[in-house]
Amino acid sequence: MMNKIKPPEFDTQFAADIFHGLTTYPKSLSSKYFYDKRGDELFQQIMHLPEYYLTGKEFSILQEYKEQIGLAFTSDKGFDLIELGAGDGKKTKILLRHFLEEKFSFRYLPVDISDNVLLQLSASLKEELPGIAVEPQQGMYREVLDRLTDYKERKKVILFLGSNIGNLSQEEAVSFLKKISSSMSSEDLFFMGADQKKNPQKVLDAYNDKTGVTAAFNKNLLTRINRELDANFDLDAFLHWPVYDPETGMAKSFLVSKKAQTVQINSLNLEVEFAAWESIHTEISQKYDDTSIAWLAEESGLKMIRSFSDSENNFKNYIFQKS
Ligand code: AVJ
What we know:
β8 and β9 (250-257) form a beta hairpin. It is globular and about 65 Å long. The strands form three sheets. Strands 2, 3, 4, 5, 6, 7, 13 and 14 form an eight-stranded mixed sheet that branches. It is built from ten helices and 14 strands. It is α/β, with parallel strands linked by helices and 323 residues long. Bound molecules: N,N,N-trimethyl-histidine. N,N,N-trimethyl-histidine (AVJ) binds at residues 46, 54, 162-164, 166-167, 207, 214, 217, 283, 285.
């Protein structure tokens, strides 16, 4: 019999999720919590690492195929470009600059949960690409997509770059893509970047860089729990451990406890016991191929109409329509 204890109440979703993740077996934490201020900085550094090929490959695809991409996006009445998780917009600016030069009629609607990100992005666009109509949309993807579903005046093009889809489990990815598809009309497009299956060593290296930036990024989650929930994780007592399964295409990252230890999380009134070599799963970075993308599309009510890739097929950008 289980002890009947009153379920704890939590001040924030973060507190609730950390509690649940560290009191179940096997332990896990969501990668969405990587991105506090320090996490954002570390991710910026990751994008410049020689091992982390994703950003450079997608950048080169957008650069090489911007004309063709532009021709697919544009329409007589113009279009609205909605970007989910815009970040610093470095890659998107390649497209925006080209669309501006071509004098396409379009508006740019970057969507992000962070007001701060949107403010910085709007400011940098005003400076670098004045003349673009920018309408930032603060909120969660789902909320914003709901808001935009009834909007049918112009063609919508939804951008989802960076292989961010890879952080979702298969089930979550289908549910997310169904949401996208249901917010689209027949002429709308969905443009998505997805990292591809490749030499497993190359994938592994991307999540295990020599300089340890990715390890610091992964462990920063513990620093965040220490700060926000008054905990005492010892970062040196955990190992950053990425793995890659070439069959499923799943890259996973773990934090592994180097010894038996107990961690106090004061704000949660919780003591977390770790056995020696017990793991915390922290991230999925799914790698795809055309078969798995076709399956995802089929499950989600999308139809792939074009794809663009770099010369080594390391990364692909796909265009989908509602099916
Ligand atoms: C931003 C989700 C695409 O999974 O490759 C980078 C995040 N994690 N290094 C990825 C990340 C570790 C990244 N995404």
